[in-house]
Amino acid sequence: MALGQAGHIAISMALVGSIAFILGVIAENKK
């Protein structure tokens, strides 16, 4: 259970990081 929860958190953080990275790239391209 703990491992599954940790994995879910890791996936969520990776997803948020990917979205933030994509938004950052878009922002840079708009300059």
What does this structure look like?
94% of the residues lie in helices and 0% in strands. It is built from 1 helix and no strands. It is rod-shaped and about 45 Å long. It starts with a helix and ends with a helix. The mean pLDDT is 92.
**N-to-C series of helices and strands:** H
Question: How far apart are the first and last residues' alpha carbons, in Å?
Answer: 46 Å
Assign an overall shape: rod-shaped
Q: Which value, in Å, is the CA radius of gyration?
A: 14 Å
DSSP strand count: 0
Structural class by helix and strand composition: mainly alpha
Largest sheet: none
Residue share in helices? Answer: over 70%
Number of helices: 1
Provide the β-strand percentage band. Answer: under 5%
Residue runs with pLDDT of under 50 for 5 or more positions: none
Mean of pLDDT: 92
Keywords: Membrane, Transmembrane, Transmembrane helix
Brief characterization of the structure:
This protein starts with a helix and ends with a helix. Helices cover 94% and strands 0% of the residues. With 31 residues, the protein is mainly α.
